[in-house]
Amino acid sequence: MLFLNAKYLRPLMLVLIVLILGGGSWQPALAVNTEAPQAHEKGSRAHELGRKIYNFRCYYCHGYSGDARTLASRFLTPPPRDFTRLQLQSPSRKSMIASVRNGHPGTGMASFANILSKHQIALVVDFVRNEFIRHKRENTRYHTAANGWPNHQRYRAAFPFAMGKIPLDRNPETLNPEQLKGRQLFLDTCITCHDRANVHDEGPEWEANAVSFPRNNTSFSYPKVDNISEASVFARHEVAPVLTSLTKLEKKGAQLFQANCAFCHGADGTGKNWIGSFLEPRPRDLTDPKIMKGMTVQRLRRAIEDGLTDTTMPAWKEVLKKKEIDALIAYINAAFYPLPHYQK
């Protein structure tokens, strides 16, 4: 077995699910801005606005086709609702609106009362009822050119593994050349999102290292990183800048940043990494002059020490010593954005 046991994936997956239910998405935040619906919207326009909300807020657990065949559903008890198995009479539209508004305690279904307006809730419920319950449609495919997957058929050899038709731990000696090619393609490209898809044997318990997507203390080389062909569209943001002539303090800051801050801000400081794409608002891009305009040493120190309200930026003053925060500031100044009046 080469893969992380599901027991160890569960805590991380639940964290990600909570982040997503609170407003994140597997897609970059640029895809989020749904047009504010108006009360007079009807017909196809209302349906398409409901689709936008569903595809951003709901698909991660319930699936693009509403059948809850998702990686997230494997880690939730009870599992997300499979809309394709429901009838229009039960549950009623009223009860579904209440479910989205109030959530269901003891399940992965959170309340969206503070995230969606009443009209947006009605739009997404009506979309689910028409798209999945009434018509059993497929909705929007994920693997499209717009989502960064042009010519998805080039991965056809991996489809049997992604769909669970061939267990990933089947003895490679029993696979034909095409299946062996597909298995390797799945391991190289698909496993980040599809996990193991299907295995005969869960295998022994493994230590909690990120296997399918390298983090921090794991090693991985990126010989040719681009937004389409590599294992993850976020891989480029896991590469720290190569800097020469760093001071001792800046080198210490680099170590601290990669160990503590890169998880959200990315190794390159952009916040465009895998985890960063889940957070709303997005982590600050420390390299963007427009975003960092007006940033001072004092302001940056306060943000690190006390955190930022209404964001996922926590307070570090009880975690890092003053000298360590000094080192972080020195590294951010050297690697990402030159702070005005910073004195070495």
How would you describe this protein?
By secondary structure, the protein is mostly helical. The protein contains eleven helices and no strands. It has three domains: 6-134, Cytochrome c-like domain (Cytochrome Bc1 Complex, Chain D, domain 2, Orthogonal Bundle), CATH 1.10.760.10; 161-206, no CATH class; 238-335, Orthogonal Bundle (Cytochrome Bc1 Complex, Chain D, domain 2). Helix content is 38%, strand content 0%. α2 crosses α5, α4 packs across α5 and α8 crosses α11 (322-335). The radius of gyration is 22 Å and the shape is globular.
How do the helices and strands line up, and which of them pair or pack?
Blueprint: H1 6-21, H2 43-57, H3 59-62, H4 93-102, H5 118-134, H6 159-162, H7 177-194, H8 248-265, H9 289-292, H10 297-306, H11 322-335
The CATH superfamily name of the largest domain is Cytochrome c-like domain
CATH domain class name of the largest domain: Mainly Alpha
Provide the β-strand percentage band.
Answer: under 5%
Number of separate domains: 3
Kindly name the structural category: mainly alpha
User: Which fold name is given in CATH as the topology of the largest domain?
Assistant: Cytochrome Bc1 Complex, Chain D, domain 2
Multimer state: single chain
How many β-strands, per DSSP? 0
Largest sheet: none
- N-to-C order of helices and strands: HHHHHHHHHHH
- Radius of gyration over C-alpha positions, nearest whole angstrom: 22 Å
Please tell me what the overall shape is.
Answer: globular
